[in-house]
Specification:
Largest interface: A-B, 18 and 23 residues
Radius of gyration of chain B: 25 Å
Strand content of chain B: 25-35%
Radius of gyration of chain A: 24 Å
Number of strands of chain B: 22
Strand order of the largest sheet of chain B: 21-20-14-11-12-13-22
Distance between the termini of chain B: 48 Å
Oligomer: heterodimer
Largest sheet of chain A: 2 strands, antiparallel
Number of domains of chain A: 1
Helix content of chain B: 10-25%
CATH architecture of the largest domain in chain B: 3-Layer(aba) Sandwich
Shape of chain B: elongated
Shape of chain A: flat
Chain lengths: 301, 367
């Protein structure tokens, strides 16, 4: 009797969903709503749990904060440069990997190594490569000298040099995962299509453009979308390279700004942090929607 | 175009690393496929028929032996230069391209002096599509087509470059029974219309028998018999071929020749001439039984299955190598369920095979 009722009202389904809903509700939906609420509470004080009023002042403050604008600029540059470059390079390397036979596993392992390496440890290595100290010029500068160039301070020097290092570093860190996904996508393309193309005398380039590429577009778009989201959330990479005072280095990211507003030296402003976080959320949501719209037109399933 | 296979052999390295013996997929295949004929390569799975097809297509290189298309030795020529059309078992239609784009694909690959204008390409594509009757589906994607339609698209794509040889790998195995019947007629018609030498691979003997001009029966990489379907059916060279062809399959018994009389169990079923004494296998086609109250061959009746056109009498016999004997006869002959059923045999439907070599022993009937 009870069982029948449960089944009819769909309660049974909800019962099964309950653990996941509770978990997601507590740890995702509730904080999200909370952040949204915080972002509208003006002059919130976390110690006394009081605020003056409700309004858009937090947003106005954040959007007029030069540090935030710098962070937005940095983040967008990072996204626009690293996502296409890393995906493109990963595609090239994956195609290369799938077309060689000997030592393939070795190369696959080597290309995957950055993925299992600690971000800060990698940051340290990059410092050694790029940083100018009183004792050494950094390996990259040594190389530049070798080719007759002028040395550049990549860590504390001009903006473009620092951005170059950050992009280089980000690409290097995100590539292994993309290579992994793309090599498996490439190997899942049925050999029979290649045989069919071969019998028809299709050139290698045309096979790639007309068969391989369309067949792996779902995976490429997956990587682009997650790549965008990941790059917008960049923070630890910048810290690994430029230290925790990112505002001073002019290399802050949006997530870094949120963190600084909460815990940094100038921190203690959860309302500003919340407003910045909501702005980031809106940006990522918009970009992802655009991506999905584009992918609907171009992805062949 | 005549296709000549000369001592064609293909060996694959053994998967088993401990054993270093090669697996022989095709062993010394020697056969000339006459121009404009439809040839069925037939055999159980793993017999090397698909390998043979891939050797002809050029997707595989033979270990030894030569392949000629007409006068030209094509053994070392890559697939695209051989002038073949290949239809894959699962069709291999590019799922992201429309039917039209799929059929155009081979034409767009042409370079140099063979290069066609857009109009010429479209003309050719529509011509091929009309031939297989899919010209109304040109803007669909393969995923929106039924299995039979996909098959036609695959054939159209293979035909659009006017190949000298058309190769079909298990063309009907992905279709349901009704569609299979229809499509095999279609393949026959297309082959007749285009007069392209066509070789197709199948494990379904009925399929091969129904549309082929000639069939090649293979087993373990070795050609067993080549001939017109009816000839192979009527005079199989060995027990394997006899068992492989025919539905329902041939009934096989342990038998014995003694003074030119063939015994199955205790029953003296046939009088022959010029057959040495000894143990033999006896193969009797299902249609070789005649119900006869005074017949020499007695079996235990199990059931009678009436299937409209004809009915089959299912029986058992201690000497039978199959668990059940199946005899097919006209509906009028329906027997009541008795314990014992007696048959006389049609001599032309009875084959004797050597116990050792399983080769067929020819015999004449003594009246």
């Amino acid at each position: 009797m009870i069982r029948k009722k449960l089944a009819n009202s769909g309660l049974k389904g909800w019962l099964y969903l309950l653990p996941a809903i509770l978990f997601l509700g507590f740890f995702m939906v509730y904080p999200l709503i909370d952040v949204f609420v915080y972002s509208f509470e003006e002059g919130y004080n976390s110690a006394s749990q009081t605020y003056f009023g409700i309004g858009l002042y937090n947003y106005s403050y954040v959007l007029h904060d030069p540090y935030f604008l710098q962070a937005v600029k940095n983040t967008f540059i990072l996204v626009i440069i690293t996502v296409p470059l890393s995906t493109g390079l990963a595609l090239l390397i994956s195609v290369g990997l799938s077309s060689i036979k000997p030592l393939r596993n070795l190369f696959q392992t080597i290309y995957f190594l950055p993925y299992v390496t600690n971000t800060l440890a990698v940051g340290l290595v990059f410092m050694i490569l790029f940083k100018k100290t009183p004792y050494s010029e950094g390996l990259v500068n040594v190389l530049i000298h070798l080719f007759g160039g002028k040395s550049v301070d990549f860590i504390e020097g001009p903006y473009w040099a620092k951005m170059f290092v950050l992009c280089f570093y980000t690409i290097w860190v995100v590539m292994p995962f993309k290579i992994l996904i793309l090599t498996s996508a490439l190997s899942s393309v049925n050999q029979v299509y290649y045989n069919a193309a071969k019998v028809d005398g299709t050139s290698g380039f045309r096979i790639f453009m007309r068969i391989t590429l369309p067949m792996i577009t779902p995976m490429i778009f997956y990587l682009v979308i997650t790549g965008f989201i990941g790059a917008f959330k960049a923070y630890s990479d910048a810290v690994a390279l430029f230290g925790t005072n990112l505002n001073a280095a002019g290399m802050n990211t949006i997530v870094g700004y949120v963190y600084d507003m909460l815990y940094g030296d100038s921190g203690g402003y959860p309302s500003y942090a919340s407003a910045a976080a909501i702005i980031l959320f809106a940006i990522v949501l918009t970009i992802t929607c655009i991506n999905l719209l584009i992918s609907k037109k171009n992805v062949h399933y | 175009m005549e296709v000549v296979l000369q001592n064609l052999t293909k060996k694959f390295p053994s998967r088993d690393r401990k054993k270093h013996e090669d697996v022989i997929a095709v062993d010394n295949f020697d056969f000339t496929i006459p121009d404009g004929k439809l040839i069925g390569l037939l055999g159980p799975s793993g017999c090397g028929k698909s390998t043979t097809l891939n050797l002809i297509s050029g997707l595989l290189k033979p270990t030894s032996g030569r392949i000629f298309f007409g006068e030209d030795d094509v053994t070392d020529i890559p697939p695209e230069s051989r002038g073949i059309g290949l239809v894959f078992q699962n069709y291999a239609l590019y799922p992201h391209l429309t039917v039209k784009q799929n059929i155009l694909f081979p034409l767009q690959n042409l370079k140099g002096k063979d290069k066609l204008s857009k109009e010429e390409m479209l003309d050719k594509a529509y011509e091929a599509a009309k031939l297989v009757q899919i010209d109304e589906l040109m803007d669909r994607k393969p995923g929106e087509l039924s299995g039979g339609q996909q098959q036609r698209v695959a054939i159209a794509r293979a035909l659009v470059k006017r190949p000298k040889v058309l190769l079909l790998d298990e063309p009907l195995s992905n279709l349901d029974a009704r569609l299979r019947l229809q499509t095999r007629e279609e393949i026959r018609r297309i082959q007749r219309e285009t007069k392209i030498t066509t070789i197709f691979v199948t494990h379904d003997q009925e399929e091969a028998m129904s549309i082929s001009d000639m069939i090649v029966v293979m087993k373990d990489g070795v050609v067993q018999q080549i001939g017109k379907p009816q000839d192979v059916y009527d005079s199989p060279v060995n027990l394997f071929v006899a068992k492989f062809l025919g539905t329902p399959p041939i009934n096989v018994f342990d038998g014995k020749m003694k003074e030119n009389i063939l015994y199955i169990g205790e029953d003296a079923v046939l009088h022959t001439k010029n057959v040495p004494d000894g143990e033999v296998y006896v193969g009797i086609r299902p249609e070789g039984f005649i119900l006869d109250e005074n017949g020499p061959f007695s079996c235990q009746l199990r059931s009678v299955e009436v299937m409209g056109r004809d009915s089959s009498v299912v029986a058992t016999n201690v000497a039978s190598l199959n668990p059940l004997i199946r005899a097919v006869m006209n509906t009028e002959h329906i027997v009541k369920t008795e314990e014992i059923v007696r048959f006389s045999l049609k001599p032309g439907k009875v084959f004797l095979f050597d116990r050792e070599s399983e080769e067929r022993i020819g015999f004449e009937v003594a009246l």
